[in-house]
């Protein structure tokens, strides 16, 4: 069993945004030479997340962000956290900070329309995410 780890940087340009990070993760897997195994993609931030969803139609990302904003608006009454980003913490907790993917024949086993997204909920800023590839 072989293990490889890499830290990536991602720059966001809006407060709430979904950025496709599939290609850098795929490139890293190819660099490792691992053909079969799994990759964990992890976000070490409390107001950002990692998810898998459709990338063919950008309206899907907009709809996800709109639904989250309607449920947890930035100015929601009653938030006690004084930094003004309580909504980002909640959205991150709901979406989750990591995803595991199967590596088969040197590629991530994603569905036809699926991509890996870094979800920003308190931007814009430069963030990081990590990938751990394990396999043979």
UniProtKB/TrEMBL annotation:
InterPro entries: UPF0047_YjbQ-like (IPR001602), YjbQ-like_sf (IPR035917)
Protein origin, superkingdom: Bacteria
Pfam hit, one: YjbQ
UniProt similarity note: Belongs to the UPF0047 family.
The protein's name in its UniProt record: Secondary thiamine-phosphate synthase enzyme
Organism annotation: Sedimentisphaera salicampi
């Amino acid at each position: 069993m072989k293990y490889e780890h890499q830290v990536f940087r991602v720059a966001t340009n809006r407060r709430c945004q979904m950025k496709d990070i599939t290609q850098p993760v795929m490139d890293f897997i190819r660099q490792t030479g691992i053909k079969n195994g799994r990759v964990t993609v992890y976000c070490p931030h409390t107001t950002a997340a990692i998810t898998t969803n459709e990338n063919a139609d950008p309206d899907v990302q907009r709809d996800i962000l709109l639904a989250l904003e309607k449920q947890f608006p930035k100015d929601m009454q009653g938030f006690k956290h004084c930094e003004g980003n309580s909504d980002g913490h909640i959205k991150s907790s709901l979406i989750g900070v990591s995803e595991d993917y199967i590596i088969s024949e040197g590629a991530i086993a994603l569905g036809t329309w699926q991509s890996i997204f870094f979800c920003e909920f308190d931007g814009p800023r430069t963030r990081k995410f990590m990938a751990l590839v394990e396999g043979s």
